[in-house]
Design a protein that fits this description.
It is a single chain. This protein is of the alpha/beta class and about 900 residues long. The chain has four domains: about 5-240, ATP-grasp fold, A domain (Dna Ligase, domain 1), CATH 3.30.1490; about 250-335, D-amino Acid Aminotransferase, Chain A, domain 1, CATH 3.30.470.20; about 375-510, 3-Layer(bba) Sandwich (Glucose Oxidase, domain 1); about 550-580 and about 615-635 and about 695-895, TIM Barrel. The protein has 36 helices and 31 strands. The strands form six sheets. An eight-stranded mixed β-sheet has the order 12-22-21-14-15-16-17-13. It has an eight-stranded parallel β-barrel with strand order 24-25-26-27-28-29-30-31, surrounded by six helices. Strands 1-2-5-3-4 form a five-stranded antiparallel β-sheet, sandwiched between helices. Strand 14 (about 400-405), helix 16 (about 410-415) and strand 15 (about 420-425) form a beta-alpha-beta unit. Helix 13 (about 340-355) packs across helix 20 (about 535-550), helix 23 packs parallel to helix 27 (about 695-715) and helix 27 runs parallel beside helix 28. The structure holds adenosine-5'-diphosphate (ADP) and magnesium ion (2 copies). One magnesium ion (MG) binds near residues 321 and 333.
Length: about 900
């Protein structure tokens, strides 16, 4: 029989898989000699056995009995012993901390007899009965499945009938009365009396912890967080210590550093004469931990001592649960604590300064999501700027947005067209709100969580969003919302929405760009006084990861301005320069002429007119990225995007005809629009297909690139363009365009008398391209994975259509952990990337491999691309630092 039970003295923090996080750390503290009440942990293996067989391992009860006997010997009393009972807590604790699992049951071992023994031993009858009613309450709710409100309401009723405000105001009689009421409720709802046998109480509590692993909320949480469903949970049985034994007792939580800012000091809350979760439950007002110094100086000093030891031992910020029982300090939990983004960077840097961790480790203590958070614009923190907080909700999509409140999509669109900044305020959003969401600066809803429609769509669009602000009463009919204080905000009034903190303010709070962005932009010198400790921390870690990473980081940029900005942010080239915008605006007419051209001559004229304009665009971009590679993608979107709207044009033709005006041109245009109209443009005539059916289009673009390069060369520059062919599905497409392109290069080379030899490659954005990567590699000097389109074509859905319609439902049901447009679908899309990378390299060992989809700036995806052996990732300029950080962390991990 395997060992299913470990004493706290037997485990260690390395055994998280087997003992769960809580159990492993309780054991670790015990090993360190810290004052942890004795106890034992039932392993996750026992739980797994229970889950797959429907009953615990045969030997489990016997093993528990052995450990319980040892615990009883150590404590000098037996579980539930009538004259002096040992009481225990039964606590769940999986490897990953998981909301939705069973809560802890305290005071196991009490019954009608032992409650008297506890009263006599402690000399405090009130305490004994308070503990007993807590047991029935917790056991009733979490083990027996009774509605918690049942108990809460009885407690409230007892308090109000006695005219007391706090639980501590209830005396012995009141508590005895409550115990009676609770027991009646249990009997009534379960058909059985409350179990009096202490060992039975324990057995059932343990079983309930096992069962809670499969509670619906826990299952959902795991699905969303991609936590495997078969890990199981451990169960901790721990001798009780009592914080509710009077004013010299109490319970609290503490952090070794401020988890909000990272500052060193004493952080936490304490509640005198209280037990268990009274602190978190907010039943009474807690006091700041620092006040414990005057209340219980000895305990306070030992606590600080222990906190320092824990921090040095875990070499990181720890959070702690402790209880003081009549002047004696007990440690009940510790773990490496959660922290804000700024705190993560500051703490890593402080620990570096203290030589507690290495640079390598420091890079592992932070991540790209945290860095991204530090880069969002924010509301000023200037204390002189008045702020009128209306309420708060969930920080669903970061950023700081200011605008006039509007309550429907129509108004949002209308007002934003006339140049107003608007915030769309709704109870919740649905697909009909999409236009309004696009038009708004920010979105505020009073309902729904982080996977609600509003949250999902806003994150997809990179738009500021606060959702589920439940204390705001949104009245869309009367176009207003009411804050908890009764303040009313009418349509048109300006509000400010902070997607990073979830706060909503009245009026316009000034927005500033974050110091971290100003540092990346080169506006703050990290060595100067201007740089605060956060900027210095970021700088230090970035220096390290830049040296550590193997992958290059490029940016997606279509203009010289973006290119320059990307370069400041650390981009080492452009991975995707789209050419679409170069055909819009006033140039649209030229494109129209190209599409409508009847003869070769007309077509040549149109192309000749476009050539110099294109060339000028490229000269600027190549100058901005001088010396670094610039991958130019030939025209990709369907032609109809350059033509007038079909309905508008039809109306125009009809009106002109009615007036008897000449409509010849418009008619031709209308015919072309009809001809090019596609049911599903995403899968239509675009990319290389366009290049093959519109003669001269791609060669004109290649010529423009080549001439731009030649001009830059003459001007003494070092242009490094690369030509990229989009939407290739078969090697023949690639071959034709590539041959044409190389011919143009030779021509221009001769015309200018400069050597022009630059790579021609293809995007991999269709499953077929990925699957035929070997042959494609023979005709491509590089592959760039267009993971946006590849995701669409692999999944068979178009982003614009599906994100707003069903993604939130999919996320809520846990079908997706994250949107596959935000984080690469490694199992599907990732597999194709891997196949193409491997087969491409096999055919052409020096082929350059990169990614130009938005996934290039997503932390989890960057790690995958590193592992897949890609040479670079490319992402929007603003994400470049995030990609640098994650590429460095990925390289470090791999070694
Ligand atoms: P959670 O995982 O929700 O933090 P815990 O198992 O830590 O659950 O327990 C909930 C509360 O009960 C905490 O405040 C903890 O400190 C307290 N608690 C747990 N075990 C004991 C014990 N043996 N004696 C006193 N308090 C305890
Ligand atoms: Mg806890
Ligand atoms: Mg594409």
């Amino acid at each position: 029989m395997p060992k299913f039970v470990y004493d706290f003295t037997e485990g260690s923090k390395e055994l998280k898989d087997l003992l769960g996080g809580k159990g492993a750390n309780l054991a670790e503290m015990t090993r360190l000699g810290l004052p942890v009440p004795p106890g034992f942990t039932i392993t996750t293996e026992a739980c797994r056995h229970y889950l797959s067989n429907g009953s615990p391992p045969e030997d489990l009860d016997a093993q528990i009995d052995t450990h319980l006997a040892a615990l009883e010997r150590a404590m000098g009393k037996r579980l539930g012993q009538p004259d002096d009972p040992l009481l225990v807590s039964v606590r769940s604790g999986a490897k990953h901390s998981m909301p939705g699992m069973m809560e802890t049951v305290l005071n196991i071992g009490l019954n009608e007899e032992s409650v008297a023994g506890l009263a006599a031993q402690s000399g405090d009858e009130r305490f004994a009965w308070d503990s007993y009613r807590r047991l029935i309450q917790m056991f009733g709710r979490t083990v027996l499945g009774l509605d918690g409100d049942l108990f809460e309401e009885a407690v409230e009723a007892a308090k109000s009938s006695r005219g007391v405000v706090e639980d501590t105001g209830l005396g012995v009689d009141a508590l005895k009365g409550l115990v009676g009421e609770f027991k009646d409720a249990v009997a009534e709802h379960t058909g059985h009396p409350f179990p009096d046998d202490p060992r039975e109480q324990m057995r059932r509590a343990i079983r309930a912890v096992f069962d809670s692993w499969t509670a619906p909320r826990a299952v959902l949480y795991r699905r969303q967080e991609r936590i495997p469903g078969d890990l199981g949970t451990a169960v901790n049985v721990c001798a009780m210590v009592f914080g509710n034994l009077g004013p010299d007792s109490g319970t609290g939580v503490a952090f070794t550093r401020d988890p909000a800012t990272g500052a060193q000091g004493v952080y936490g809350d304490y509640l005198a004469n209280a037990q268990g979760e009274d602190v978190v439950a907010g039943i009474r007002n807690t006091m700041p931990l620092a006040d414990l110094e005057t209340l219980a100086p000895d305990c306070y000093r030992s606590l600080l001592d222990i906190m320092e030891r824990l921090e040095n031992h875990y070499r990181d910020l720890c959070d702690i649960e402790f209880t003081i029982e009549r002047g004696t300090l007990w440690m009940l939990q510790t773990r490496v604590g959660k922290r804000t983004a700024a705190a993560a960077f500051r703490i890593a840097n402080q620990l570096l300064d203290q030589q507690v961790i290495t640079l390598e480790e420091a890079a592992d203590r932070v991540n790209g999501d945290q860095l991204a958070q530090l880069m969002f614009p924010r509301f000023t923190e200037d204390p002189d700027v008045p702020r009128d907080l209306l309420g708060r909700g969930m920080n669903a999509s970061p950023g700081a947005a200011v605008g006039r409140a509007v309550f429907d999509s129509y108004t949002a669109v209308k007002w934003s067209r006339s140049g107003e900044d608007v915030i769309l305020v709704r109870r919740e959003t649905n697909p009909d709100d999409l236009d309004g969401m696009i038009a708004a600066r920010g979105i505020l809803t009073s309902r729904g969580g982080k996977t609600s429609h509003a949250a999902v769509v806003a994150r997809g669009m990179g738009k500021t969003c606060v959702c589920g602000a439940e204390d705001l009463d949104v009245d869309t009919k009367n176009r207003r919302f009411t804050a908890p204080g009764g303040e009313i905000v009418e349509e048109g009034e300006v509000i400010s929405v902070d997607g990073t903190t979830g706060e909503v303010f009245r009026g316009s709070v000034p927005v500033v760009s974050s110091p971290v962005v100003r540092y990346f932009e080169g506006e703050i010198d990290p060595a100067s006084d201007q740089a605060d400790d956060l900027v210095r921390a970021v700088h230090r870690i970035m220096n390290y990861v830049d040296a550590a990473r193997r992958m290059y980081v490029r940016a997606n940029a279509d203009t010289a301005e973006d290119a320059a900005r990307a370069r400041r942010m650390g981009a080492q080239g452009i991975g995707l320069c789209r050419t679409e915008h170069m055909f819009l605006g006033s140039r649209r007419e030229l494109v129209e002429a190209l599409i409508l051209a009847h003869t070769d001559g007309e077509r040549a004229d149109a192309l000749d007119a476009l050539l110099p304009l294109q060339c000028a665009d490229f000269v600027e971009i190549l100058a901005a990225m001088d010396g670094l590679p610039v991958t130019v993608r030939l025209l990709d979107p369907p032609l109809h995007e350059f033509l007038p709207d079909i309905t508008e044009l039809s109306v125009r033709v009809a009106v002109a005809e009615a007036r008897g005006e000449s409509v010849e041109n418009d008619l031709r245009l209308l015919q072309a629009v009809h001809r090019l109209h596609e049911q599903n443009p995403m899968l239509g005539l675009r990319g290389v297909r366009l290049g093959l059916v519109v003669p001269g289009l791609f060669t004109m673009q290649v010529r423009a690139i080549a001439q731009a390069a030649a001009e830059r060369r003459r001007a003494g520059g070092h242009p490094r363009p690369e030509v990229m062919i989009p939407l290739v599905g078969t090697v023949q497409e690639l071959e034709i365009i590539r041959d044409e392109s190389l011919a143009v290069l030779r021509e221009v080379s001769e015309e200018y008398g400069v050597e022009l030899d630059f790579p021609v490659g293809t995007m991999i954005e269709l499953p077929r391209a990925a699957l035929t990567a070997g042959p494609l590699a023979e005709h491509a000097e590089f592959f760039s994975f267009g993971t946006n389109d590849l995701t669409q074509t692999v999944w068979g859905f178009s982003r614009d259509d599906v994100e707003a319609s069903f993604f939130s439902a999919y996320l809520e049901k846990g079908v997706f952990g994250a949107s596959p447009f935000e984080t690469l679908d490694i199992d599907g899309v990732g597999r194709l990337v891997q196949i193409a990378a491997t087969e491409g390299r096999a055919r052409r060992p020096d082929i350059k491999l990169g990614v130009c989809g938005e996934h290039g700036g997503d932390p989890a995806s960057v790690h995958f691309f590193h592992d897949a052996g890609l040479d670079y990732v490319s992402c929007s300029p603003f994400r470049v630092p995030v990609a640098r950080l994650e590429a460095g962390r990925a390289a470090r991990r791999a070694t």
